[in-house]
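Check these lines:
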Amino acid sequence: MKTIMDEISQLVAEAFAGAGYDEKYGKVTLSNRPDLCEYQCNGAMAAAREYKKAPIMIAGDVAAALEGSEVFEEVDAAAPGFLNLKVKASFLTEYLNRMSSADRFGLEMPDVKKKTVIDYGGPNVAKPLHVGHLRSAIIGEAVKRICRYMGDEVIGDIHLGDWGLQMGLIMTEVRHRNPGLPYFDEDYKGEYPEEAPFTLSELEEIYPSASARSKEDEAYKDEAMNDTYMLQMGDRGRTALWKHIMNVSIPDLKRNYEKLNVSFDLWKGESDAKPYIAGMVQKMKDGGFAYESEGALVVDIREDSDTKEMPPCMILKSDGAALYTTTDLATIAGRRKEIDPDRMLYIADKRQEMHFTQVFRCAKKTGVVREETDLEFLGFGTMNGKDGKPFKTREGGVMRLETLLKDINEEMFKKIRDNHEVDEDEARETASMVALAAVKYGDLSNQATKDYIFDIDKFTSFEGNTGPYILYTIVRIKSILNKYKEAGNSIDGVKLNTEVNPTEKTLMLELVRFNQVVASAYSDLAPHKICAYIYDTANAFNSFYHENRILNEEDKDRQKGWIALLKLTKELLETGIDLLGFEAPEKM
């Protein structure tokens, strides 16, 4: 099913052709002057050059060709050459009825469906999730859902940081605290303990302690680097200790991501790239791509078109240890062998752009990945506090994600209890859903690449461009539909009105944009476009709601048309928030 804009553009293009002009000038857009018209076409302005004719005359010719159209209510040629268009309600009704009965509301799937791996999340094990992990998780989940809705086969991979220096730091600190543990005894031949030598809370304290000490104690840092190297070389004791770290950390990570309604198909980490490193490095050497520079192994990735200096991509350090670039390249090699995707999409802080540019160029140049495989990076901006600086706790530290969610849950719980007499358990469940919407919508309504202010007071408001406002709108529609059904009516098979009032038509004009918005959000990797759409739709619905006495309407046929409109509005809004990764409660 074509988008509403494509259908209208085709009609206008035919009118251009009928008036003796090239149909390529018939592209229609949303009006930038909604007080004058609903859609507009500026093609006459461009056609004037080719036909050496005043644009207003060309626009007039096209307007005349559209006279008597069953689609357009008004077609006006306006100086200096605009075509101002208003469509008939009957056309909107017919289009929306087709949408409501079609799979995915008639959304046209891409001709080629892509097998896509989305790399998002990226937390380090042994460390609690903090607010810095929020954007990758939220944006990645939304992009994954949008791509799946468009028909792609999508595999989400958390890509854990489980193989770098933080592992060595933890092991060094564990040894200093418990020197008698068998993991560091080279002569130990027995089975290692099944129980980890630390709890989750102890583990979360060990890493920052070790990290702080390593900055002041050079010998300690050298120990940690050696432990990291030994782990990467497959040392038996350190591998056993590493498994303990993973087994203690991952369940907590899963629990916290579950609270965000974020899920991953793969729980792989840097360590899973290890089997591919040696072979990959050897191929780079054999192919003449990798060479030594100051003891390190590097690949030159400069291109003739570069306007700035592009440093070589370092593959191995001088001591032979792997780096992030090594494991990222080996991860690509592993994904090629195990999944062979058409596309790999990485969602991370935009400050990592240089790193991914190096990795992608190296992967393509050295044949780690197929030439036709798309490697893409979606870099996101910083989440800042009201002071414009990276979001912190009141004490100035990095806030744990669990603490942030708890604080917002409590804020929403208070608001719900203050406004309604409800059961405490029900209020807490509702508060949890609304709080998640507040956090996710607050983030996703901003363009991913831009920094934004995380304002809890604003995000938890039930008014304005917020998640709670969207949910409140959906709950209001649910309430009306439930009351209509409780009165003995059915909402099945109802059709929209063909004669409509102004607020009814305004809402219909928003609903028909759904397919175009989703397709654009998919092609541009832009969840904020979904947010803008559902906000505009919610506003249009609330204007309609305040102007019409829906349940008290005496004309039952008109009322049925309104119920059909509400039903479709609810379905589109619910689909929109599902693509963003949250849902609406039954009551608020």
Residues 88 and 199 are 67 Å apart (CA to CA). The longest strand covers residues 72-78. The domain at 401-580 is CATH 1.10.730.10 (Isoleucyl-tRNA Synthetase; Domain 1).
